[in-house]
Amino acid sequence: MTRILVVCLGNICRSPLAHGILESKLPKDSFYVDSAGTAAYHIGNSPDHRSIKVAKTHGVDISGQSARQFRVSDFDTFDYIYAMDASNYNNIISLARNNEDIGKVKLFLEENNSVSDKNVPDPYYGDISDFEYVFNLLEATSKILSAKLKE
After folding, report:
1. Rounded mean pLDDT, 136-140
2. Would you name the residues annotated as active-site residues?
């Protein structure tokens, strides 16, 4: 079983979307997808209502997810750890114990060569159109990533 973790700051906007989208594209018998945040702001909370709404519009249900904080043991649990932006990437890397841990961490958008800015923008302080933009960015990248992972 291949285990994938997607990580943003609070685990209520970007990483729940990436979690849900990627999970919908991978066979559940071969892949496990989860998400986390580097900060503890929203532990136990559901995803942001705007993330839930945008995902639902596209046929992805993320309403059952619950925010949690990234922990060092995630390096042992997951094969791939995808950060939503450079800040969260650096936060994850700062917790790495060795080169093996570091080798598991990448920016999610590194998988998408058609995107020049490898940081997924945080839609939290924006409106629904910002969430829609992030969904489409994550959807396009998840198609590429899921195809690569299934090879």
Report:
1. 98
2. 8, 14, 122
